[in-house]
Amino acid sequence: MTEPQETGTKRKIKFTYVISAIAISCLMIGTAFGMMISATTPSTPTVIEPGSMVSGHSFVVFQSDGSSYAKNGSSGAIAAFGNSTYIIQWALTNIPSSGGTVVVQAGNYPITRMGSFSIRILKSNIHLELQAGALLRLADSQWSAPTTDSIIQIGDASTTVSNITISGPGVIDGNEANNHPPGTGDLWVAAVKITSHVSDVHIFNLGIRSSSGDAIWVYGESGAGRCRGISIQNCILSGNREGILFEYADDVTISDNWIYDTIAQDGIEPAGSSQDWIVRGNHVENALQSGIDIYNGANNGIIEDNILVNCDGGVMVSSQGAVPGAQNILIKDNIIHDSIGHGGIEIWVNTARTNRNITISGNDISNTYDNGIYCGEGTSEIQIDGNYIHDVPESGIVFTGGNGSIRNNIIRATGEHAINVIHVARYLLIEGNRIEGTTLAGIQVGSATNSWGNTLITGNYINNSGNEGIVVQYQTAHIIGNFISNSYYDGIWTQGSDSEISNNICKNNDQSNSANGAGIRITYGDNLAVLNNQCFDDQLTPTQDIGIYVQGATNSLIQSNQLFGNQIGSILDQSGAGTAIKYNMGWASESAGSATIVGSTSTTFNHNLSCAYRAVTLVLASFNSTGAGAYTWTANGAQITITVQNSGYYTLYWYAQTW
């Protein structure tokens, strides 16, 4: 490599350098102008006009005739010339200690390796500007063995450096195809690497492409070496191994970048216990892994207004196993569609159980590989609120976490359930969701193998579910104030115990016309309260066979429900021991009237009770005369017979029930 040459001229110059000149003539010209000329001579004339020499920058780097030059921005004097890497490094090194600006003008600048980096910034208050048309391209075969190096490195992991700006619209090209031969292992050369002990770095309007590592890698250390105050804005990052990775970095803003075609990992990865960061307004497309991946304890972050398209997954919280989880994360107002390997937003299983206080709100998620949103076991304080999830091949939302809420989401056209709750450790609220057109159940809750907390399902609108509207298996869930219509099977089906099902409207369900399809079905649970529900069918041809189907439930109460218009009947009573059915409109569990005994000792009359599967109890019989004496009674499914001790003419008043 040719060392840069320094010059001592302090005045504006005009020189013409001609290839045909012999070495002695070159030396004479150089001496006349007070300059030292590189032994590598340009092949065509180079002309620098005096009026173009002063720029106001510390140094201006430019190319002419295949060589790179650095001129003093204040005086216009040529300060050094040589190969591109040395000239840019020379300019950055020779900036005054107070700081300054190095401008790289349009041109193709081959960049070569100098140890673990090509170019390094070790002073504070520096601005490196790559102007339009400036291309810093890593030369062929600079790195060929496993490494974690960089093209431009800010800091050296020990020196304190601050207030650094790198701006475009010029481009850094990592030339990955010619620096990563097959079989060379995990080569990882970042285009820009920010090391520990560096703060206040601003990278904007820059293009970075084809790096064998991250386009931009912020790599601080825990403790005093953390990076701080990093902003990366309006950059175009294409064809890199990963877009942006920041670790052990605080106060980080990644905004309005366009990141596409990452060849190995994520678009953006907050990691390494980074704190107080924002990822906003970025467009990530065709990432081989996630669009955005929160890893290894990155906390106190906001992911907002990003567009993530055709990535392996949308937003992943991938702190799995015993790795520290993510805490205090807001994932808001992103558009995520066409993921090809995972769901829209996923919080992975974390055995350390430290994924906590994560809010997923206002996102538009569609055409994912599997689920819209997935919350794995080991999560807690999860709020899923106001998302629009549609056209996904599996479930809209899968929740296997500890506690949280699923509220006010719009979910339609799912290949499985709209909401599938597999495990709740303590408490879960499912409220105000609008669900339409699911292939399986609208809301599915329960698992026979998991311990269970308390679930409240309230205020949801569910229409046209492919199975039940709401189904609860084996667990405790309170189902209150929901509207369920046109489900393929039952409106609500619960197999749990210790639950309340109240104030729901279940209409026109059992669109499959299956046997005994019901508005509400309770099966083999214990201690259930089914209260104040409306179960009816108002179609011209009813499909909902039964209002409420009580199947084997024990020690339960079915009371004050309104049941009408159902195809077969209001209640199908196959209840177990201790279950009371009373005061339901459309189901006669109480009846009263009068009867007469005419010159005999008995009378039989219709009781008009709905009692196909339970006994009738005569609660009260009173006579207009005490002469009847003692009485006995018997009943069947249609009638009551009363027998008195003394024959005669009597009027009796009776009240019977089937509780």
Which terms would index this structure?
3% helix, 2 helices, Pectate Lyase C-like, 23-stranded mixed β-sheet, 65 strands, disordered N terminus, 659 residues, rod-shaped, mainly beta
Task: Describe the model.
There is one protein chain. The protein has 659 residues and is mostly beta strands. Helices cover 3% and strands 49% of the residues.
CATH topology of the domain at 394-587: Pectate Lyase C-like
Q: pLDDT below 50 for ≥5 consecutive residues: which ranges?
A: 1-51
CATH class of the domain at 394-587: Mainly Beta
Number of helices: 2
Main pleated sheet: 23 strands, mixed
CATH architecture designation of the domain at 394-587 = 3 Solenoid
Q: What is the average per-residue confidence, as pLDDT, rounded to a whole number?
A: 87
How many individual β-strands? 65
End-to-end distance: 99 Å
**Shape from CA axes?**
rod-shaped
Strand-residue fraction?
Answer: over 45%
The Rg value, from CA coordinates, equals 39 Å
Q: Class by helix and strand content?
A: mainly beta
